[in-house]
Amino acid sequence: MPDGRHSTAVLGQDPDAGQLLTVAVPGGTWKASHLTTGDHALISEAVVPGFDYADLTLGRPHELVARFPEHAALIHRYCRPDRPDQPLPR
Hints:
The protein has helices at residues 61-67, 72-78. By secondary structure, the protein is mostly helical.
């Protein structure tokens, strides 16, 4: 969330296990995803009212860590490095 709150949702087809079929992410919110099992997944997004690349901001780890230091480990896990020659974090 823009105020630094972190939440997690598990997508899946078993609502009895707490899984969700969809997640709505409000504008201005950073999001990331990963697989807990398997080696591939299909992710799609619907953007309303519309999408314009001029509005897109990719997360830069150093900026996000400065803004949300309590989430540094998550930021480094999900963000690409600031420089393309840097390896992705593991």
